[in-house]
Amino acid sequence: MTFEVTMFIAIGIGLTFTALAALVRIVRGPTILDRMVASDVLLTTVILALGADMVARGHTDSIPIMVAIAATATFATIVVARYVKRRSEQDLPETTGEAEHV
């Protein structure tokens, strides 16, 4: 086996392990932020797999797909962050800003 083949096998095993770990975290949670970080890791792993495929086969056809996945992940992260922020603001008790006198 050549060095290249050995490296691609190692890369494949590493990316597979990373994807499986991210899937476990997406399913088990426990919070929405844990799931969002795990989905970002999964999408990054997909981008890395596409990049490894481009290196192995010597093409650049996957670049538009990689850009679309990265843009989708960024947009989804922003949406979830705003959702969590609004939700946490609703959970806080409302204050008027004035101190109460006893």
Automatic annotation (TrEMBL):
It comes from the Bacteria. The keyword tRNA-binding does not apply. It is found in: Cell membrane. Pfam families: MrpF_PhaF. GO terms for molecular function: sodium:proton antiporter activity. The keyword Cell division does not apply. InterPro entries: MrpF/PhaF-like (IPR007208). Keywords: Cell membrane, Membrane, Transmembrane, Transmembrane helix, Transport. GO terms for cellular component: plasma membrane. It is a multi-pass membrane protein. The chain crosses the membrane at residues 6-24, 36-56, 62-84. PANTHER family: NA(+)/H(+) ANTIPORTER SUBUNIT F1, NA(+)_H(+) ANTIPORTER SUBUNIT F. Belongs to the CPA3 antiporters (TC 2.A.63) subunit F family. This is Multisubunit sodium/proton antiporter MrpF subunit. It comes from Leucobacter komagatae. The lineage of its organism: Bacteria, Bacillati, Actinomycetota, Actinomycetes, Micrococcales.
